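Hi F.,

I've been meaning to write this up properly since the lab meeting, where we talked about keeping a consistent format for the predictions we share between groups. The idea is simple: the sequence comes first, exactly as it goes in, then the structure tokens exactly as they come out, then a line or two of notes. No screenshots and no reformatting. I'm using this chain as the first example so we have something concrete to point to.
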Amino acid sequence: MKYFVLFLIAVPFIKLSAQKYIPFDCDDFNFNVESSTNTSIRFINQSDYFSSLKDTVILPEKPLIKENEKLYTEFQKKFPNKISTHCIQAKTFSRGEISEISYCSQRQNIFLITKEKKFYIFKLNAFEVDDFLLFNEDNETIYFTENYPLILDEGKIIFDVGHSYSGKQIINYYQFEDKKVKYASIDLPFDYRITKYNIVKYSNYKVITELTRHQLKETSPNYFEKDKDVFCKKFIIIN
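Output, unedited:
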């Protein structure tokens, strides 16, 4: 397994408006990458960003997050006691390793939303946890995402893009190849938000992202809010 920590300084950026408050350094940008495969991350300019969007993949619509009782009954018949409202007794994938877990908690609620390709998608609500469980019916293993998963290429690749439990923005993915699973987990800087993102496909899938960081201004003692007129933008491509 490979681990990467990347620190980038003096990368391309767009900064609009004048600095009005505390000095705002758009060049300060660092992020962490944990990956079991080679992961390429590079900055692109705004022109290249818009040019790349011509190959954007049409993403499936996110379903309503509600319990599908009929599908849950089907799941229990095929995989009894693997996942229930308060319990998990199944194999789970985490950081490149598969392990068996068996536990129950009345403080967590799990309900089945839908099925996409070979994955049953469950919603997990618990104390300070708001995740999705993806149960792969082929190997009966659970994979976790923090945002609703984007399942592409007949279930061969899964993207998890958006907000994380820690408050950071994340771009994660699983790639299934010949019973092997490659994965990457990318934590973006805390003060940057994913404004827009697209999945594009050339020889393989890539994530193209627009990131925005706003200056914080003090509007009352010890209270800060984003200044809509002072911000930086960066554009990155990940594959």
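Notes:
Residues 1-20 have pLDDT under 50 and may be disordered.
The two ends are 17 Å apart (CA to CA).

If this format works for you, I'll send the rest the same way.

G.
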